[in-house]
Structures are given as C-alpha cells and as structure tokens.
Amino acid sequence: MSIKASFSNVVNVLRDWDDVHNGYHCSWRGVSCDNHIFSVVSLNLSNLNLGGEISPSIGDLRNLHSIDLKGNHLTGQIPDEIGNCGDLRTLDLSGNLLYGDIPFSISKLKQLEEV
C-alpha cells in the first residue's frame, strides 16, 4: 500500500489496490504473482497516467522479475532501494519525468537484461 500511496491519480486506476476490501494483492491491477512462492514477481503499471514518485518500498518486493512503469508522469529520483530487487530482469521507467543520478545500487542487479 505504500507503493500506491506514493502515486497520484490513482483513485479510479488503482481502486482495487485495497487491502481492507481486497487483501489478495495478486488480484490487483498490474500485479502478477508466483503461486509457488506466493510472492509478487511482476509490476506492470504502464501508461496509467500515474503521477507522484516511485516509493522506496519497491525494494521490499525482493522477488520481482519485472517492473514496467513506462508512460506515466512519475517524478523524483529512482529510489536506491530498487537494488534490493535481486531477481529483477526487466526495468522500464521510460516516458516519465524522473531526474537525478541512476542509483549505484542498480549495479547489484546482476540478472538485469532489459532497461
């Protein structure tokens, strides 16, 4: 929920991201899970007109294979915590308004194939 809280323009777009009425996060829009390890492996929120920033909580999703946030209006910097997503293979942040340096922690993502 802290990831959702860092975004703006989510009222209609991410209305199913509601841990009170829909606690099964694997059914939320843009979230895919591995049913064997019961963990989020993909986050695809591309082209949803989201604003705000990328939450440092993204680093808590350590089993992510793919993050696709392209085509939004995200601002701020890429959080250093993204380096905690050690299984990350695909990262697409294009088409946003991000600024600043690419965090050094991205160098820890040894599986990263597509940026």
Task: Describe the structure in your own words.
There is one protein chain. This protein is mainly β and 115 residues long. It has one domain: Ribonuclease Inhibitor (Leucine-rich repeat, LRR (right-handed beta-alpha superhelix), Alpha-Beta Horseshoe), CATH 3.80.10. The chain is built from one helix and six strands; from the N terminus they run H-E-E-E-E-E-E. The strands form two sheets. It has a four-stranded mixed β-sheet, with no helix packed on it. The mean pLDDT is 87.
Task: Throw out a few tags for this protein.
115 residues; mainly beta; Leucine-rich repeat, LRR (right-handed beta-alpha superhelix); 4-stranded mixed beta sheet; two-stranded antiparallel ribbon; 17% strand; Leu-rich_rpt; transmembrane; LRR_dom_sf; membrane
What is the gist of this entry?
The protein is mainly beta.
